[in-house]
Design goal:
Structural class of chain B: mainly alpha
Oligomer: heterodimer
Number of strands of chain A: 13
Protein name (chain A): Extracellular solute-binding protein
Keywords (chain A): Signal
CATH architecture of the largest domain in chain A: 3-Layer(aba) Sandwich
CATH topology of the largest domain in chain B: MetI-like fold
Pfam family, one (chain A): SBP_bac_1
CATH architecture of the largest domain in chain B: Orthogonal Bundle
Number of domains of chain A: 2
Number of helices of chain A: 18
Structural class of chain A: alpha/beta
Signal peptide (chain A): 1-19
Number of helices of chain B: 16
CATH class of the largest domain in chain B: Mainly Alpha
InterPro entries (chain A): Bact_solute-bd_prot1, SBP
Chain lengths: 417, 327
């Protein structure tokens, strides 16, 4: 009787535990079916495009793709948990930086694509390949090239008699004119914090040039140097002069974009990824320029967006590699440019592609980044550690709310490098 | 006279002895019945034991483990660091800043809903008819999801298009318009105001239920004796609902230690950490900086601070209930 009681109790405990943990993993064993995890795109129309692309892939290869979408801000937590449990997606989209894909590779969670690169002769730009190489292994394919700069309301500029600024003095004068006409000069948002990193990246890149910012990123120059302090001072001064959205640290990215779309703000400092959304939402002409430097028009801050990676524990590596290969075809590259208005990280012949003037310009600027013919800066946060990024994001927020001065923020950056 | 001074025969009849004596029939029951009772007892307590182990002991043991390792969320073999996380916690100035915010939250976030809730519930209780719509209106915020409340109030507080600033401008108080959630000196209080709005309805409904058990004759007697409304509330009504009042106090107070969701949604702990509490700071360390070990240590701090308070208030509430001094 006692034995039965013990067994019964054990059964109850086992049942309860299994109910809590969800039981043993029940993986999908179909080799022609893969699971693909991505972060939620900014616009639902972009998600529809992804689904359309996956349908085309399924039709072409017979491999079905189950799409999982999670909120972008939860991507890191969800992905890490899934990969560690051995129940991760076969393929996933993720940031390419050392704090993201680099950390996963370090933990041995990414599939080594070095052989796949060689076998398939994937034509990804060298600089882009370097960004997905960790520990001597190629572990992903970069999805797109991005740049960070200033979208501006060309129509409003023309109405106010403002030419495209060629120097920072021009930009300051333009901002004064815009502000005096009751329009917010810059649709700056910094509630989420990461926008501060983009602001600093674009001002700093333009002012000191690509080589100098590369030295900062590599640790060969100090983050509390006068150049960095000066760049931070530009942000502090523009904020004090009411060129930025009032209380920018209380404004979300979406709300700042809405201010630009509605014509309440004249300039939107953000990245090329927003080009399509801007064109969908505005009824005025839009231009795109780098943040001007002291004596020159400045340079764009460039970098890679997210990339595609394969989970090391996948049982369907062949299908997953085939999916990556599909994403690197010439046809897919053209589709990406035309439909998604994003810039592939491999050469695509765009001569017969129909694109808006705005995106054509972005494409041309990105081509200079890709082939190395033009100077470009860096979007700092994708290349730095989480600790540094936190210090940078908090630092710019502190700057905009008057909690810290530029030299204090620069000192924090150096301390957290 | 103490029990010790009683004669032996008399002492044998003390309540203590009588209670022990009452177990006699159980002890003399047949062995089969005793086994059956033991079995039944074990079966009855087994679910509670299992749930305690699964939902309390195991997570606590897990948290203790993570607090002594340097875990980044990925590495399957994190390095043992002993008490380094605890040492860092005590030396981390942001922890003390966050604790200060927790303290502000506990004081205002507990006092305001209780005071407002008590006054409104007494008002509704003393009103004879037509209170149902008010009860629904007051309770409604409590049943709304915290995330929805945070998002909607974020819009209300928006510095450019939020209706709070627009309303202030319309009534001629445009000078007061500001970025409520972007001002480091105001943001915590702006979020706190939202939290008070959301939780007061719960206090009202619970206290209103307790007020139904208040002895009206005592209130009337106090009135006849010349007690004013404040005196009747303080000396007659409040003591009768004290156990329920303490229960609500415990819930709101402990919530103040672990507050996370509404701050995370509305400010993310910003600007520049100005609204960080231990909960948001722990999240930031664990999931934004991938420092699960340190984040877990911070979460343990919440437990260590809040459990004794909860236990104390719970015991006080039980004692008052046993004394029969409450509703």
């Amino acid at each position: 009787m006692r034995k039965r009681l013990v067994l019964g109790t054990a059964a109850i405990i086992a049942l309860t535990l299994s109910a809590c943990t969800g039981g043993a993993p029940q993986g999908d064993t179909d080799p022609d079916s893969i699971r693909f995890l991505i972060g939620q795109p900014e616009d639902t129309a972009d998600l529809d495009l992804v689904k359309e692309d996956l349908e085309a892939f399924e039709e072409e290869t017979g491999i079905s793709v189950k799409l999982d979408v999670v909120p972008s801000e939860n991507m890191r937590t969800v992905l890490q948990t899934q990969l560690r449990s051995g129940e991760g997606p076969d393929v996933f989209g993720y940031d390419t930086g050392p704090g993201f894909a680099g950390a996963l590779e370090k933990a041995g969670l990414l599939y080594d694509l070095t052989d796949a690169y060689a076998e398939n002769d994937w034509p990804i730009y060298d600089f882009a390949q370097e960004r997905v190489t960790f520990g001597g292994k190629l572990v992903g394919i970069p999805n797109e090239i991005e740049s960070v700069g200033l979208f501006y309301n060309k129509t409003l500029f023309a109405d106010l008699g403002i030419e495209q600024p060629q120097t920072i003095d021009d930009l300051t004068a333009a901002a004064e004119t815009i502000r005096d006409n009751d329009v917010i000069p810059f649709a700056v948002s910094d509630k989420e914090g990461w926008q501060g990193g983009h602001l600093l990246s674009m001002v700093l890149s333009s002012e000191i040039g690509g080589d100098a910012i590369e030295e900062l990123i590599a640790g060969d120059a100090a983050w509390d140097s006068p150049e960095v302090v000066d760049a931070l001072s530009v942000l502090a001064d523009y904020n004090a002069d009411e060129f930025f959205t009032p209380s920018a640290t209380a404004v979300t990215y979406d709300n700042a974009n809405a201010l630009f779309y509605s014509g309440k703000a004249a300039i939107n400092p953000t990245g090329s990824w927003l080009a399509q959304d801007i064109e969908r939402n505005v009824d005025f002409e839009v231009g795109y320029m780098p943040f001007p430097a002291s004596g020159s028009p400045g340079i764009f801050s460039g970098g890679l967006g997210s990339g595609l990676f394969i989970s090391k524990s996948t049982a369907k590596a062949d299908a997953a590699v085939q999916f990556l290969d599909w994403n690197l075809t010439e046809e897919h590259g053209k589709w990406q440019v035309e439909k998604q208005q994003s810039i592939p990280a491999f050469p695509v012949d765009t001569t017969d592609i129909e694109a808006s003037p705005l995106f054509t310009q972005i494409l041309a600027d990105a081509a200079k980044i890709a082939d190395g013919t033009g100077d470009f800066g860096y979007n700092v946060d994708v290349l730095m550690s989480d600790t540094f990024n936190e210090a940078m994001w908090d630092g710019v927020q502190a700057l905009l709310t008057g909690q810290k001065k530029p030299d204090q923020v620069a000192a924090d950056l150096e301390k957290n490098y | 006279m103490t029990t010790a001074s009683l004669p032996a025969a008399a002492a044998a009849t003390t309540p203590e002895r009588r209670r022990r004596g009452s177990q006699g029939p159980v002890n003399s029951s047949p062995p089969v019945t005793r086994r059956a009772q033991t079995r039944l007892g074990l079966i009855l307590v087994a679910p509670v034991i299992v749930m305690t182990v699964v939902f309390f002991v195991f997570p606590l043991a897990n948290a203790l483990y993570y607090s002594v390792v340097d875990f980044d969320g990925i590495d399957p073999n994190p390095q043992f660091v002993g008490l380094a996380n605890f040492q860092e916690m005590f030396l981390d100035p942001e922890v003390w800043h966050a604790l200060g915010n927790n303290l502000i939250w506990i004081i205002i976030g507990t006092a305001a809903p209780l005071v407002i809730g008590l006054l409104v519930s007494v008002l509704l209780w003393t009103t004879r008819a037509g209170t149902s719509p008010y009860r629904v209106i007051f309770f409604l915020p409590y049943v709304l999801p915290g995330v929805a409340i945070g998002i909607v109030w974020g819009w209300i507080y928006d510095p450019v298009s939020g209706w709070l600033n627009q309303a202030l401008t319309v009534v001629g108080l445009g000078d007061l318009a500001r970025g409520w959630l972007g001002d480091p000196n105001l943001a915590l209080y702006a979020v706190l105001a939202t939290a008070v709005w959301a939780s007061t309805g719960f206090v009202i409904v619970i206290l209103l239920s307790a007020l139904r058990n208040v002895d009206i004759e005592l209130v009337d007697a106090a009135r006849i004796d010349g007690a004013n409304p404040a005196q009747r509330l303080w000396y007659v009504i409040l003591p009768q609902i004290m156990p329920v009042f303490l229960m609500v106090l415990t819930l709101t107070l402990v919530g103040g230690f672990s507050v996370f969701d509404i701050i995370f949604i509305m400010t993310g702990g910003g600007p520049a950490g100005a609204t960080n509490t231990i909960g948001t700071y722990a999240y930031s360390q664990a999931f934004e900086l991938s420092r699960i070990g340190y984040g877990t240590t911070l979460a343990l701090l919440i437990t260590v601070l809040s459990v004794p308070v909860a236990v104390f208030l719970n015991r006080l509430q039980r004692r008052l209930s046993l004394d029969g001094s409450g509703a």
